[in-house]
Amino acid sequence: MKTDSSCCNCSKPKDPGRRSALKICTGALLGLAAASAHRTHAGEISDARPEIGDFLVRTDAEGGTQPLTISDLAVGDKPILAFPLEPASGAIKSGSRLNKVIVFRVQPEEIDEDMRRNSVEGIVAYSAVCTHQGCDITNYVPKDNALICFCHFSQFKPTHGGEVIGGPAPRRLPVLPLKAENGRLVVAGKFSSKPGATAG
Ligand code: FES
Fold it and tell me: Does ligand 1 come within 6 angstroms of the Cβ of 135?
């Protein structure tokens, strides 16, 4: 019974023809290994948390991606949900929902001094995952200056570092610091705290 389990009869060559076949075989295996390593690397990037220099991108209705720019957001507009993108690889870090951020614009003068350092012309970005039990946060209510999680109505104050102003959330919403480069919104630092639900 044949015991060779390789992809293309990769056994010891006994003649020149078989040597050629072995070369092809080896090349194919190296190609597969490289593709697998590439996929693994891409997967690692996709799950990695935002890093300084990442762009922010949103996915459009056709499945394309668009880097967010300052001019994409006006005061009073609905928030945009976005993921970081690593410029070197072009990989979008959407492999983990903990990388999803909610981005919107408020009047810069409403933002406190600490948060102003993490914002761009009134644009702020926060983890879009509630620190209570991890529901998505998709709503900002300007009249209350509150990000609201509709699962159990936790409220967070985006002009003041995401502090909790209502509901059961046990801790602030993590801030994703921003800066601008050529009009694009770019990540300026790691999340201010661990994104996601609070254990316990
Ligand atoms: S999960 Fe957001 S308030 Fe409970």
Answer: yes
Residue 16 in tokens: 């020149």
Contacts of 168 by beta carbon, 8 Å cutoff, 6+ apart: 132, 152, 154
Question: Taking phi first (over 0 means left), then psi (-120 to 50 degrees means alpha), and beta for anything else, what does residue 85 get?
Answer: beta
Q: What digits encode the pLDDT tens for the residues 85-127?
A: 999 999 999 999 999 999 999 999 999 999 999 999 999 999 9
Strands 80-86 and 101-105: antiparallel
- C-alpha 195 to ligand 1 mean position (Å): 13
Distance CA 61, CA 92 (A): 16
28 burial type by CB count under 10 A (0-12 exposed, 13-18 middle, 19+ buried)? middle
Identify which of 131, 151, 156 to mutate to test ligand 1's pocket (most ligand atoms within 8 A of the CB). Answer: 151
Question: What pLDDT sits at residue 134?
Answer: 97
